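Final report, Chapter 2: Outcomes

The project's central promise was a pipeline that accepts a single protein chain and returns its three-dimensional structure in a standardized token representation, suitable for archiving and comparison. That pipeline is now operational. To close this chapter, we reproduce one record exactly as it appears in the project archive, with the input sequence first and the structure output second.
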Amino acid sequence: MKKKKVNLRDLKPNSEEQHSHDDGHDHGDGSAFKTYIPAIISFVMLIVGIAVDYFDAIPQFEGWIRVVWYTLAYIPVGFPVIKEGWKSLIKGDVFTEFFLMSIATIGAFVIGEYPEGVAVMLFYAVGELFQNAAVNRAKGNIKALLDVRPKEANVFRNDDYISVSPEDVNIGEKIQIRVGEKIPLDGVLLSEKAALNTAALTGESKPTSILTGEKVYAGTINLESVIEVEVTNKFEDSSIARILDLVQNATARKSKTELFIRQFARIYTPIVVFLAIGVTFIPYFFVDDYVFRDWLYRALIFLVISCPCALVISIPLGYFGGLGAASKNGILFKGASFLDAMTKINTLVMDKTGTVTKGVFKIKEVKAIGWNETEFMQYLMAMEEQSTHPIAKAILEYKAEGEDFEATEVSEIAGKGLRGIVNGKTVLVGNKALMTSNNIDVPSETESIVESIVLVAIDNQFAGYVVIADELKEDAKETITNLHKVGIKNIMMLSGDKDSITQQVAKELNIENAKGGLLPEDKLNEVEILKKNPKNKVAFIGDGINDAPVLAASNVGIAMGGLGSDVAIETADVIIQTDQPSKVVRAIKISRSTRKIVWQNIILAFGVKVIVLILGAGGLATMWEAVFADVGVALLAILNAVRLQKMNWD
């Protein structure tokens, strides 16, 4: 008996595990060993049968005994596939991979090639098991995110903490979280402080410090001491529930590449079947020494290699890998379609406050004229204690030694500032208009300051000023530099802040095009103008709240710090779960790597299939060669897709 070759692919370990490319070939929660048992049985019986055939060890191993042996070897791996093919046939879906493999292997039995028939189906099954393992591994990061779902909450009821399901906790109730436990619901911290691990949600390994009254989110882990939290959202409205829903539905939004390949497979498969029929019968009219068995054998080879399963699974597997890698890095894509869209972006528009700046005012400079700086700040802070303006909060963070001064008779002068009495002295705090209206000369040096400036006069004499500025995020400059490196040359900043401040920040970041003083509708108009040029593929990065219209209008909307923002999750296509703009660069790199791998798999699968189809039709390849070529393509595609899990995009 001549040595021949074999094919990998599709196995249904049991009837409850419904095979579907759409579900990622997930074979349920059964043990891995049970899943492999049918393939192991068939493999052992096949090897024994081939050994007996080859060495002629048992003379009685012929005729019906040989047929029965190979039939029993075929059933564990063949029956589930034939069953699926029959189900598809009843539904009217004839040209499936199950149909192809069933016809090819049964055909091998009909012409007496029993070992080949078993081997084709066995390796088809083994290949499918490899694919299942690869898909599950690719889904690993997404599953890890789903695993952050808290299972119970310790809620304070009837003077004691009791354990209940997070879904049963009401807004306003107090919950306790012990060290190492996950926070089950969104809330505000009642304890003095807490150290939280947010890695599962944000991809950041560095612990986050939280103080009394600050927000905490479900899914984060308490690290240091027992803490208490007041619940602010029902579980179904919590950040983690929304994110889980987003991640679970991400794979349903398929890319155009995936949809195209699936549609192509539905056309390609019947064409191959009819070509195989042609390979069997057409040579009868043109070949002198036509032998039906030989041409049927070539047609069966044709069917084996034509099976599109490897092609169809390797593409979603690539996107699974991309989505999983992104979630591991604290980046949530709402679907594979946005992974594709991100690769085409060539124009990036960004908000300023909260995107490249921290959105928190800080004192940049204190200039006291004729006063000691500390005493000057004590007068100013006494006045600002009467205000709730963000600038006042920034000033009150100044650490001044000595006793606190107290302001009396404080009144607000609309659009200008404050007037009051501190230590018996009249104090004016505000803008230049306030100084001018009180005939107080302001130094010309203040004219060149573009940041927010607070002017101070004491007893009708100019006493100094404080410059307040929003700080750049630590990775803001690095982000712009790296965006240029990855080919995003057209970067634009749009801000509602003063144009002078916007221009200064843009200059610091090396952004050439910037506009300030814009309302949300103005930003939307700017993006619409950019989109009128069909060459521009526009991404907008904003905070997901006041920028919702622009996020929705962009080709790709990217929300910063989306963990606690309802609007970000509702409106944006991509959510950066931290406040790091540098992760936008990583999102671009991940999407490009994913698309590259998907296309490598497509080209590899098509290339090898076409070559072996031609060789098979010409009688230059046996079924074993066809099988191993097909198996090789499937395994290479799988290994290539799994590479996404190991890549580093720093």
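Archive annotation: The first strand starts at residue 153 and ends at 157.
This record, like all others produced under the grant, will remain available to the consortium after the project formally closes.
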